[in-house]
Each structure stands twice: as structure tokens, then as C-alpha cells.
Write a structure and sequence with these properties.
homodimer; 399 residues; alpha/beta; Peroxisomal Thiolase, Chain A, domain 1; ten-stranded mixed β-sheet; two-stranded antiparallel sheet; 15 helices; globular
Chain lengths: 399, 399
Amino acid sequence: MTDVTRNVGIVGGGHTKWGTREASYKDLIQEAGKATFDDTPNVGPEDVEGLFVGSVQPERFAFQTHVAPMVAELLGIDVDSMIARTELACASGQAALRYAWLAIAAGQLDTALVLGVEKMNLPREYAPEAQASMANVMDREFDGVNGFNAPPYFAMIAQRHMHEYDTTREQLAQVAAKNKTHAASNAFAQFQSEVSVDEVIDSFELSPPLCLYDCSGVTDGAAGLILMSEEKAREVSDEAAWITGSGQACFSGNSINNLPSMSAWPQATTAAEQAYDQAGIDDPLEELDVAEVHDCFSISEIVEYEDLGWVEKGEGGKFIEDGRSELDGDIAVNPRGGLLGCGHPLGATGVSQALEVFNQFRGTVESDRQVPAPETGLIHNLSGSASVHSVMTLSRERP
Amino acid sequence: MTDVTRNVGIVGGGHTKWGTREASYKDLIQEAGKATFDDTPNVGPEDVEGLFVGSVQPERFAFQTHVAPMVAELLGIDVDSMIARTELACASGQAALRYAWLAIAAGQLDTALVLGVEKMNLPREYAPEAQASMANVMDREFDGVNGFNAPPYFAMIAQRHMHEYDTTREQLAQVAAKNKTHAASNAFAQFQSEVSVDEVIDSFELSPPLCLYDCSGVTDGAAGLILMSEEKAREVSDEAAWITGSGQACFSGNSINNLPSMSAWPQATTAAEQAYDQAGIDDPLEELDVAEVHDCFSISEIVEYEDLGWVEKGEGGKFIEDGRSELDGDIAVNPRGGLLGCGHPLGATGVSQALEVFNQFRGTVESDRQVPAPETGLIHNLSGSASVHSVMTLSRERP
């Protein structure tokens, strides 16, 4: 090793429009790459030393592997330090960001591109293959073959949480309405219509109690970030989102039939505590201003309020009901619109979440969804059966 | 960040038998995991804080993604620090090892399991899907559809190298004969028959000048490593392979039609120079004792002698002919048997290479292929169109 650990900042980033896109996997990569470099005028492809790609199933959605070098080619990057793709299902984007941060922190390189991408909407003739692929995210042999695609599984979590803690159908719908309303003013979001609580409850019942609007979308999209060491960052930008902490945890019982609880995610708590500890955050409810958490389904965000350590177990429903996760609440949660509003192109979500926190810090988001002067942020992803949780903390002030 | 960068050592590892196995993807994971913990009696699943999995196409070969948490479940590991899978095609195992090393070096954790795995031989009814998958490793839309699977592409490299540098058919065959002879005494190897130069040349002509024995196999297999920070390593073991350097490089023209040369791999030179620089290796030919390099085809190893900086460009053929890569030569190259002898379960190869260097250091390999008292080693992988090269250096002595 050639250096001590160092401060690392996000200094730029870019986004494709997310949705059902008339665009290939390669098109999305190029669009996000261009947006990222356009946003970071003092950094070009020639400055990038390391490339960290988050993408889940290009083997099935795009019939391609070895995708990180393809990103290098499409964006004109000669990597001379580190390159790979990272897969952790729905947390793949954050996992790529984590490795880029580590590589810079440990002194292996100074400038990295993180790019998350997924192309999920395929031509109709490929659709059965793509649909079957989503069962692969769970343990295919135990869970997938028994119909445990995501919606029925998270519906069971909702049922159990409602049973144990008197969480209400309305509280679930309030999460969806909040996030979809944020997304309505996010130009990059897949779903850009304001939605009321009643409209959520009246939407098509998919897997009770979850209706269509309680579920995130099937989305094509990509997003990119430029990360730099403190020394380099000072040369190119006055503004950055500094990475202050990181945590991950995975329960050894990943298959649904091995999980000890359907209503609690202790790995979220473990991951968050690690990140808070590294960041020096003693009271997250007091100190966090903005959080992008993994609302793959409306119930998820409620469990996360609790298991990320913001309120007592069982109090998550009341947290949304009391408006404490609104833009002007205790913590502004998912001002981007979350997965419910933006959609969820698997490998891109974590990257987009981090970019949102940076954009909130620098005040470049649409005014309707700007959090008032945020200084401290968090991103969170769960993956698979929610036996795995990933958390990072970000700060506007250099640590 | 909580620590300065630290020394990291490989303290144990294990291997499945490689070959056409009557074993599932999950079976291979469990077999390699058990072998790894059996080899490291003072470390159990409960000690593992981070899990780094290398695997390329489980989506196509095993119809599964989110595979790192599946490994955690199968081996009984509760990860409480870091987890993800890494994909860089044929270099995926080394990429996972690199991230584990970085995570420990940067102070995120003390004990990691690295596991590489690929199940490539499928039941006959799935074989077309598996075969098609190998074209995915190249750029499918440019190269794969034009028949540029690996054998014809590396045959072109051989033709060009023979044309430019008078490399001979016999020299290619000498590489294959050397490595297959090493593999003959490696209990884990897929191919365990000694093969002569004449037998290589007389084997089935696959893509001229490459014959069957010039090509690595289609292999099921897995391998694991335990990595520890210096502080922890001292507690559990007197022996380790210390990671001293690392380099990667990727040319922006990944598609074969964009490569500037068919006979030189400048990215191998860039990657090796980075690793040598970090490791303080001034004269690799003098200082390296053992090297596991990516002999996916016999021609590859000849190009690598040159582009890893051991001999002048064009002198690779003479290097094998003069016996300088034999066990008692200047550098013992592929004493494990290489990809030609061991087979090449994509995500497992880099992990197995690092384990071999450690086993050579501690003198636990079969005596027929033991290198005399090696102190310094190297592992090398190429991936895709060989536009990407990955190198790590290892030392028996703590840096």
C-alpha cells in the first residue's frame, strides 16, 4: 500500500431519464456517462483512473457480461488502475460506490467513475426470460420456484408488520403518496404524477395488502458519479458530498424460509450502526437531514424508519403519519421520489440515491423537492430477501 | 475511515476438485468453503466479517443472481462488514481478492473470505444456453455475433505473433505440454495426464494454429481464501502470503475491432508495472520466483512472458524453448498446471492462482511440482478480448 486512508468526495454526477426507454443497455451507459462528465466540467474521461460499475443481470437483460470494460469503451476511458463490476442485486450500485471509495481512501487512485445501469424492459419476445430473471434475485431453488418473487414476499412483511404493530393500510399508502409526489417534480423519475393516499389504496391490488402504487417499477435507467480524493477534489470543485461512513450486514439465512422474522431487519440496524459510528453520528434522528432509503415497496420504508435506528420498533407507521419524513420533517426521506416514484433499475438505484444527496447538498434539485439546507445525508439499500442491508453516510462538510 | 492502510495476508485456502462435476453451483460453494475452513483451523465462519465472491455468469449457468448472500447462507456466515460479488469475466476471482485486500488494508475489517466459483458444464438440455453465454464475454453485438468466441480470437493472436516474431508451432505446444505435465500431479486439476509436445500438435485442430490441447477447458470448480490483517494473521498462523502490489489496466477499445494490436498487450505491461512499483520489485525476472499467469490458450503465456516485462517483445517463444519458465527456470510459471491443465472455471481461477502461490510458499503442493523455496510470486489474469489485465504480487516475507 502506498498511502494512508484519505477523505473521498463525490464531485459530480449525471442521470438518464428513467422509465420504459427506447434505449439499449449501451445507450443508457452512454447517456449517463455524458451527463456525468457534463456535470463535472473539470474532469474528463482521460482523468478517470478507476471504473466501478454496478449492474445486476446484464447476462439476462442484455445478454452481455464483462460489462465494466464495455463501459470503458463506450465512454472512452483508458483505465490504468482499477476496474470491475459489482453485483449485490438491488444494492449493486451502492456496492460499486463503496469499492470506489475504498480504492481512493486506500491510496490506489485519485479519480473514479461509478456507473450504475440496468435495462429491464425488453422487447416482448424476450419478456418471459426477463420476468423469470427477477425470481433469480431470491434463492431460485427454494424461494423462486415457490412463487416468491418480490411482491408476494413484501406483502407478507406488510401483513406481519400490520399484525404485530397495528401499522395501517393508510400508513403504507402515505409512504407511496409522499414519494410519488416528490417524483412528480423530478425530471428523471419514471412516474411523474402526484398520487393521493386514496389513489394508492384504490390502485390495482397486486398482492394484499400491496396495490400497484405500493410497488416500485420495472425500469430502464443509469446514473453516474465522479469520486475524487480530497487533494484532487479541491482542484476541480468547491462542492462535494464527502463519504463519512459505511456499513453492510448479511444474515446467514438468506433464503426466506430461514429468516427469523418477517417484520424486523436487524441487519439494517447493524449496517446503520457501523456507518453512524464511522461518521461520528450519535443521534441519527437529530443529525441526519436527508435520507434516500430503499422503498422497493411502501412497507419497506416503514420498517427502515425503525431498523435504521430513528424510532422505536413498531413506531414506523406513526413516523410517516405524523409527517416526520416529509421534506420539512425530522428527516426528509426520499426527496428524489424513491424507488416508488423514480423506478428501480436495479444496478443504478444506489448511484442515483448518492447523486440525489449530493444534489440536495448543492441545491440543484427542482425547488418543489429541495430539502432546506441539508448538511448530512444517508443512503440505504436492501437486497434479495432483505437479509442484506447496505448503508452509507454523506456530509456536505469535509470530515 | 478508521485506520491507516495495513498489511494483508492470505492465511488459508481450499479447493474443490475441478472438472466436469456431478455437482451444482451450490455444491461447489459448500465444498470449497469447507476445504477453506478445514485448511484454516483457527478461523471459522463466525470470524468472517467480509465476504467477497468472484463469479461471472451464475445468471446463465446457474439461473441465480445475488449470489454473495447465497454463499453466506451455505457457509453459515453472518457478514457484519462488507459483502458483494465481483464480475470481470475471466479475472473475476482476482477482482474479488483485490477488493478484500483493499477493505482490510483500509481498516474496514480484519478477516475476509474470498470465494471464486463457476459451474459451466450444464445438463445437455441447457447446453446451448451455456455455450451461447461464452460469446457474452466478448462484446456480443460486435464480436460475439461474428463468431468471436475465444478460440478463433486467440488463434488470430497466435497467427499474428508467429508472423511478426517467428514464434513457432512447437513453442506454443511447449507451453501446453509444460502446464499439462504440471497438472498431471495436481490432485485438483481437471486434466491429469502428462502430454508431450507432439501430442499437443497432433490433437484435434480447433482453430489453426490452436489445437485442442492449446486450449483451456470448460470447467466446474471453486476455490476459497482467508485473508487477514497483519494483526489478526499473527494470532492464527505463522505462515502467510502477503499482498505487496496490485495493478489493473483496461484499454478503451474493448471490442476486438478497436484493438490496435493482435500481438501485444500493453495493458499487461501497465498493470504489471503498477504492481512491481507497489511491491518494490525492480527486476521481475530476477526477483519473481513463481508466477501463475493466464494461459487460457498456449499463445497467451508467450505474450505474457513479454508484456509482463520479463523479456523483450518477440522473445517469448524462446523463453519457453530455453526452459526458462520451468520449475527450476528463471521464473517457475504455472506450477499449478495453469488454465490449460487445471481448467478454467471463470470466477474461480484467480482465487486458485493465489492459493497456489501461498501453497508454493508453504511447501504444501505435490513434490513433483514444488518450486524450490519461492519467496516472491505473481498472479495474472486477462479478461474478454485481453484489453483488460490484472496483476497482483505476493511475498512470503511480511512487507
